[in-house]
Amino acid sequence: MDGVLIINKPGGITSHDVVAQVRRITGEKSVGHLGTLDPMATGVLPLVLGRFTRLAQFYNEAEKRYVGTIRFGWATDTYDAEGAPAAAEQPVHFTLEELRAAARQFTGKIDQLPPPFSAKKVAGIPAYRLARKGQPVELKPKQVEVKELEILSLEHGQARFNAWVSSGTYLRSLAHDLGQKLGPGAHLARLERTAVREFTISEAHPLDALESAIAAGELDELFLHPRLVLPEFPAVTAPPESAARIRHGGAVNLPEFSKASTVRVFAGQRELLAIARRIAGTLFHPKVVLQG
Fold first, then answer.
1. For a pLDDT cut of 70, what percent of the chain falls above it?
2. Model pLDDT, residue 248
3. Of 253, 254, 211, nearest in space to 235 by CA
4. How confident is the model at residue 57 (pLDDT cuts 50, 70, 90)?
5. Where are the extended beta strands (E) located within 61-212?
C-alpha cells in the first residue's frame, strides 16, 4: 500500500498514536509522518505509506501554516494549556495594536529557545524527560524563520492568530515569548495546523473515515493523487522503455527537461515511478525509486 494520506489529527493523541492507528486500520506496517504535532494540536498530519516513505527526505525542511489562540495572563511550564501555571494570573492591559507591534518583533529570522517540555535532546536525553523529573533543562536557541505572524483579534485576554513558519519553529515558544515581552505571561491555548507545504486541511480526513472507507472498499479514494506530491519538481510521463529502466534504477534521457535538476517520473497518470536527478546534459538518474 503506497501513497500519501492526509489525516486531520484530533487533539489529545500524539502523532505516533495516529501512525499506530493507521498501521492497524490499513495493515500497512511501513507508515511515517511528515512533521510532528503536539498532542494538544489538531490539523494536517501528512502520512506516507509503503514505498512512499522514501519521500520523507524531501520534507525535512517543510514550511507549515497554523491558526490558533494565545491566552495571556499567565505562563505555563509546558508553554501550552496542558501545563501547570508558572505564576498567578496577571491582568492584561495592552491593546490589540500594542500586541501586533510586539508580534512584529518575532517575525523574520529569529533565535528561538525550544520549550523545556519538548523532544529536543540534552546530552542525548529528550528534554521533556528531564523536565518531568524536575531536572534542569539547558537548551540552546535555534534560528527559525517566522514568515508571518498575523494577530487577528484580542478579546478577554485571548488573541487569535495566523502563522506561517519554517520547519522546527515552536508556536508554544512564540506564545510564551510574547507573554514575556508584554508582561503578563502567556501560553498557547489552541493550535490547528492548516498546511504542511503542499498538503492542506481541505485534503485531510478524520481517522474514522479510514475504517469506513475500508469497509466500503474505497480506501484508495482517500489517498492524495500522486500528481499533487512534490509539485515543485516538473513531471514527466515516461515511455515504456524508459519506465522499465527507471524501475530498475537505470538512468534515462529526458531531453525536454534539460534545464531541470530534479523531476518526477510517472508511468501513466497515477503511477509515480521515481524522483530523478540530472547527472549530465539530459541524462537523469533516479534518486528514489518508488515502483519496482
1. 92
2. 92
3. 254
4. very high
5. 64-72, 108-112, 121-122, 125-126, 142-155, 158-165, 186-196, 199-200
Residue with cell 546534459: 281
Category of 164 on φ-ψ map: left (φ > 0), alpha (ψ -120 to 50) or beta: beta
pTM for the model stands at 0.90
**How do the domains of the chain map onto residue ranges?**
3-59+198-224, 64-196, 228-289
Cα 177 to Cα 92, 188, 242, 278: the distances in Å are 15, 11, 54, 45
DSSP three-state, residue 230: coil
b/e map 91-115, b = 16+ CB within 10 Å:
ebebeeeebbebbeebbeebebebb
Task: Record the cell numbers describing residue 21, joined without a space.
Answer: 492507528
111 included as an active-site residue: no
Record the cell numbers describing residue 182, joined without a space.
Answer: 508584554
DSSP three-state, residue 175: helix
Catalytic entry in 2, 17, 38, 111: 38
Predicted confidence (pLDDT) at residue 126 exceeds the cutoff of 90: no
Q: Do domains 64-196 and 228-289 have the same CATH topology?
A: no
Average pLDDT estimate for 228-237 = 94
pLDDT, averaged across the chain:
91
- 5 band by pLDDT with thresholds 50, 70 and 90: very high
Instruction: Sort residue 286 into left (φ over 0), alpha (ψ -120 to 50) or beta.
Output: beta
**CATH (one of 3.30.70.890, 3.30.2350.10, 3.20.19.10, 3.40.720.10) for 3-59+198-224:** 3.30.2350.10
The answer to whether residue 125 scores a pLDDT higher than 80 is no
Task: Report phi then psi at 7, rounded to 5.
Answer: -100, 140
Question: Is 228-289 a domain of CATH 2.40.50.1020?
Answer: no
Instruction: Give the CATH fold of the 64-196 domain.
Output: Pseudouridine synthase (3.30.2350)
